[in-house]
Design goal:
Two copies of one chain form a homodimer. Chain A has 340 residues and is an alpha/beta fold. Chain A has three domains: 7-60, 434 Repressor (Amino-terminal Domain) (Orthogonal Bundle), CATH 1.10.260; 65-159 and 296-323, Response regulator (Rossmann fold); 162-295, 3-Layer(aba) Sandwich (Rossmann fold), CATH 3.40.50.2300. Chain A has helices at 7-14, 18-25, 33-46, 52-57, 76-90, 104-117, 132-140, 162-176, 196-210, 227-238, 252-264, 282-287, 296-311, and strands at 65-71, 95-101, 122-126, 145-148, 157-160, 181-185, 220-222, 246-249, 274-279, 290-293, 322-324, 327-329. In chain A, helix 5 links the parallel strand 1 and strand 2 (95-101). In chain A, helix 1 (7-14) packs across helix 2 (18-25). The longest helix of chain A is centred in the last third of the chain and has 16 residues, at 296-311. Chain A binds chain B through residues 1-2, 4, 49, 51-54, 56-57, 63, 65, 73-74, 79-80, 82-83, 86, 90, 95-100, 102, 106, 112-113, 116-119, 137, 139-142, 227, 256, 260, 283, 286-287, and chain B through 1-2, 4, 47-49, 51-54, 56-57, 63, 65, 73-74, 79-80, 82-83, 86, 90, 95-100, 102, 106, 116-119, 139-142, 227, 256, 260, 283, 286-287. Strand 2 of chain A pairs antiparallel with strand 2 of chain B, so a sheet runs across the interface. The first copy, chain A, binds a DNA duplex (16 and 16 nucleotides) through residues 6-8, 11, 16-23, 25-26, 30-32, 35, 50-51, 53-61.
DNA sequence: CTGTTAGCGCATTCAC
DNA sequence: GTGAATGCGCTAACAG
C-alpha cells in the first residue's frame, strides 16, 4: 500500500511552492497560466486528490456531508423519507451520514455529539423533537438543523398534517355509516416524544365531536408499534361487550395486524369490520388496504431543500416551516357496517 | 455561535497539559486516577467532544466511520442487511456513512472516490461487484473492504447460498407434484452485475435436471425488479399454450406481483397455481407467502464483524469468506397442482 | 506519571 | 505572482 500523495509532492514535482498548488486547487485567480499548467500536469501524473479531512481542518472548511438522525430507520415510514432525502442528495455533492436511534439514550447522546463533532455541515432530524436546551446547543455550535415530521418554535420544519389525517380517516368511516369507531395507536406517552399518534387522535376526536359521536376511552388502544401488538389490541377491542364496527389504525403496519386478528376470529374485512390504516406503505396497495397517504418521499425532498437553503453560502435564508397535506386512499378494507 | 472548545481549553481548565487530556481521551493507562478525574470533570463542564476530523489528521488517525455502498438501499432486501449492519455499529464507536447507488455511473464514481477521500476507515459493499482495477485501487489506498452478497477472489466476502436457494425452491415445488415450473427473475444481464438471479436460476436448473425435468427457456422470464413488472411477466407465462402450474419468483416482491396477476385472472393461489418467493420480507408472513428465507439481518452483522477484524489494530487478520445457508419457509401459497 | 513539542495535509496570511 | 510561514485540533514521541 503506497502512501497517498500530498500537495507537497505535487509542489516538488511541479517545481513550485505548496501555496501555489493550493491556489490552483482552489481556482484562485492569481496564478499564471503557465505555472497552473505545470501544477495540473503534476497532479495528473501523481493521480493526486486533496484530502477532504485536512481541508476541513484548515480554514474551517465544509465537510460536504449532511447528517440524518432518525429513529428506527428501517421502518417503512422512515425508509420512505430517507428515499426522498437521498434522491436530492444524490444530485448534490453531499454525502449522507446516517445516525440511527433505537433508544432515548442514543437520541440524547446524538443530539449532544453531532453538532460538536462537525462531521457534517447540516442536520435533518426525523420525528424526534429536540428540547430547548438541544436547540440552544445547535445554535451555539452553528449547526444548521431542519426538522422533519416534528417541529420546534425555533427551528424550520416540514410536517405532515396529522390532525387532518385523523379527521379524514374518521370522516370516511362515519360517512360509510359507522358510529362505533376504534383507534389503535402507538403509545401517546413515549420516551422519544413521538407526537403523531396523539395528533391523529386529536383529529379523530374532533371529527367524532363534529359528527355528534361521543368519544369512548375504551375504544382507544395504545401499544408498541408493530403488527403483533396491534393484533393483540384488536382482540381486546373485539372482546368488548359492544365491539367497534370499524378500526382506524395509526399505521398500515398496525392495520395489517388488526386485519389479521379479525380474520383469525373468523370475521371478514370489510363486511364485518372495516379497517383503515395510515401511511400508504408499499404493501398497502397490494393488500387493498384503505389508508391515509402521507407524502413521505416528498417530505424528505423538502427537508433537504430547506437545509440547502440554510447552507447556501451566498444568501443563506431561513426556510419557511410548513405542513404537507395527506390524502385518503380508498381501497377494499372499508365498507358500510354490517346491517346489525 | 460560540467557538467549540478544544483540548487546550480542557487542559487549561483542568490545570494539566494537552498531552494528558489526550491520554485520558484515549484511555491511555499511564494517567493517575486523580488527574484523570480532574480532566474528566473539565470535559464534563465544558461539554467537550474531541473533533474526529482533527483526530484523523493527526497520526493518520481513524475516522471512526465506516462506509456502506449499496444499490437501491430502500428495497426490503437491502434494508434488512442495513439493519444488521446498524445493530453492530450501534454498539461500537463507529458512525455510518451511506452511499446509495442508483446508476452504474454512481457506482463507478463511488468506487474511485471513496477510497482516496478517506472519509471512512473501511467499506462494506453490498451486491455490487468491484472490477479487478477497483480492487487494486482499494489496496493502493489501503482501504479495507468487505463484500456482502457478492464476491471477488481478492476480497473477503459474506455471501448467501443462492444456488441452494434456487434448488430448495424448485425441489419444494417438485415434491408437491409440479412439473411445469416457471422462474421469474431480475434481468440476468444487468448494468450492476447483480448475480443472484443468475445463481438462483442455476439452482433451479440443477434441481430440474436432478428430477428429470427438462428446462424450458420459455418458462424463464426476466424483467426489471418490482411488483408490476412481475405482474406482467406472469401474464405472459399464463398466456402460454401450456402454462406453468407453479411459479418461483426471485424475490417476494415479485412473488406478490405474480399472485396479483393470477388472482386478477380469476385463478386461485395455490389451488390453481402455486407461488414461491425469495427473501422472506416482513410482509411475507402476513400474506402467507411460501418463500426462501435469506438471513439478511445476520449477513449484515457478519459483514461488519469481518470488517472489524480487518480494522483491528492489534492483530488485523484476514476474515474468512463464507456462505450463509437459506431456509425454506412453507406457508400457504404453494400446494399440489390442480388435478388437471 | 505528565508537560512540551513536532507534525498530520491543507488554506491562508505575509512578505517578496 | 509566488514562496515561506502559521495554524486548524489532535496524537505521539520525547523529556523530565
Amino acid at each position: 500500500m503506497s502512501r497517498t500523495y500530498t500537495i507537497r509532492d505535487v509542489a516538488k514535482r511541479a517545481g513550485v511552492g505548496v501555496g501555489t498548488v493550493s491556489r490552483v486547487l482552489n481556482d484562485h485567480p492569481s496564478v499564471s497560466e503557465e505555472t497552473r499548467q505545470k501544477v495540473l500536469a503534476a497532479i495528473e501524473e501523481l493521480d493526486f486528490h486533496p484530502s477532504p479531512v485536512a481541508r476541513q481542518l484548515s480554514a474551517g472548511g465544509k465537510t460536504l456531508a449532511i447528517g440524518i438522525i432518525a429513529p428506527f430507520f428501517t421502518r417503512p415510514a422512515f425508509v420512505g423519507r430517507l428515499e426522498g432525502i437521498e434522491a436530492v442528495l444524490a444530485q448534490s455533492e453531499y454525502d449522507l451520514v446516517l445516525y440511527n436511534v433505537e433508544t432515548p439514550e442514543q437520541q440524547a447522546s446524538l443530539f449532544r455529539k453531532v453538532p460538536y463533532e462537525r462531521r457534517v455541515d447540516g442536520l435533518i432530524i426525523i420525528s424526534l423533537t429536540p428540547s430547548n436546551e438541544d436547540v440552544k446547543r445547535f445554535e451555539r455550535y452553528g449547526m444548521p438543523v431542519v426538522l422533519l415530521d416534528t417541529s420546534h418554535p425555533d427551528l424550520p420544519s416540514i410536517t405532515i398534517d396529522d390532525v387532518d389525517g385523523g379527521k379524514q380517516a374518521t370522516r370516511h368511516l362515519v360517512e360509510l355509516g359507522h358510529r362505533r369507531i376504534a383507534y389503535i395507536s402507538d403509545p401517546l406517552d413515549n420516551p422519544f416524544g413521538f407526537r403523531s399518534s396523539a395528533l391523529r387522535l386529536e383529529g379523530y376526536r374532533e371529527m367524532l365531536a363534529e359528527c355528534g359521536i361521543e368519544f369512548r376511552p375504551d375504544y382507544h388502544r395504545q401499544g408498541e408499534h408493530g403488527r403483533h401488538v396491534a393484533h393483540h389490541l384488536t382482540q381486546e377491542l373485539m372482546a368488548l361487550p359492544d365491539p367497534p364496527t370499524a378500526i382506524f389504525a395509526a399505521s398500515d403496519t398496525q392495520a395489517l395486524g388488526a386485519i389479521e386478528a379479525i380474520r383469525q376470529m373468523g370475521l371478514r374485512v370489510p363486511e364485518d369490520i372495516s379497517v383503515i390504516g395510515y401511511d400508504d406503505i408499499e404493501v398497502a396497495a397490494y393488500v387493498g388496504l384503505t389508508t391515509i397517504r402521507q407524502p413521505m418521499y416528498q417530505s424528505g425532498v423538502e427537508s433537504v431543500k430547506a437545509l440547502f437553503q440554510l447552507l447556501d453560502e451566498e444568501n443563506p435564508s431561513l426556510p419557511a416551516s410548513y405542513t404537507l397535506p395527506v390524502q385518503l386512499i380508498e381501497r377494499e378494507t372499508t365498507g358500510p357496517p354490517a346491517a346489525a
